[in-house]
Amino acid sequence: MIFVAVDYLTKWVELKAMPTGQAENVAEFFVNQIFLRHGAPEQIITDRGKCFVAELTQAVVKKLHNNHKTTSSYHPQANGAVERMNHTLAAMLSMYVSIDQRDWDETLQYVCFTYNTARQESKGYSPFFLLYGREPKLPIDLELGADPNPLLTKDGATEDYADRLLIELSTAKEIVKTRMEEVKNKQKERYDSHHRDLSFQSGDLVLVYKPFRKVGKSEKLLHRWLGPFKVLRKTTPVNYEVTSATGQGKTDIVHVIRMKPFFEPSNEWQLPQEIPPNNLEETTGKEHREVQEIE
């Protein structure tokens, strides 16, 4: 199991291979690899895995005075930065693991360093630079005698380094914010072009899409729209709290894209219209004549 943490502004990534996904491991990761290295984040967004909502994890987050938010179920887009990193991480690891794929954990930190020191096209900077205000000196730089940060080594750089670093980092982060906003707007336009507007009121009955799996069953033949569920309240502009229509069981927070109205099946149906006996004979004969003509 790999724990993945991404800073939304700099895109700096922290990775940790863990034998299990126990709450103790999550708490240790938060404290040792996030808090003690970078300080306390203002907000943490995770999925709704048991290890993230366990009492121990919540107690640690509370002690650090973090604002912990969870995504709605079966909607990974709410934590898009991590989900995108998962795809990138899988692609990078696949290039370096052995044939038996048993040594992926040995490669993990090398892949993490590579990602953090690579300049991202969408932002124009590497996560390393946005975090530290300088580029790392790599072995190739030492071999070639190159300096990735010439402004830091020239005469008089020490005296005004702090001032210049503050200005450069502030400028770089403003550029990154602008580019991120442009990317968000483009993604929003693309999403809105095929998105359907839906809204529900308290008490409405809905069906909820749940892409679960069953051992021994074909995924294509599983019925994914379950329900009916009753809408309790609107928690955000796109999320609703729902519960079983019977009022039993736990409530769930569901994204509107996974909901659709529920309609009671109608018991009203009509019998086929009876054909009078005389007309029946005429019709039967007519049909017979037509068949004869075709033959």
From TrEMBL:
GO terms for biological process: DNA integration. Residues 268-295 are annotated as: Disordered. It comes from the Eukaryota. Coiled coil: none annotated. GO terms for molecular function: nucleic acid binding. Residues 1-135 form the Integrase catalytic domain. This is Integrase catalytic domain-containing protein. InterPro entries: Integrase_cat-core, Integrase_p58-like_C, Retrovirus_Pol_polyprotein, RNaseH-like_sf, RNaseH_sf. PANTHER family: INTEGRASE CATALYTIC DOMAIN-CONTAINING PROTEIN, PROTEIN CBG26694. SUPFAM superfamilies: Ribonuclease H-like. It comes from Daphnia magna. Residues 283-295 have a biased composition (Basic and acidic residues). Signal peptide: none annotated. Transmembrane segments: none annotated.
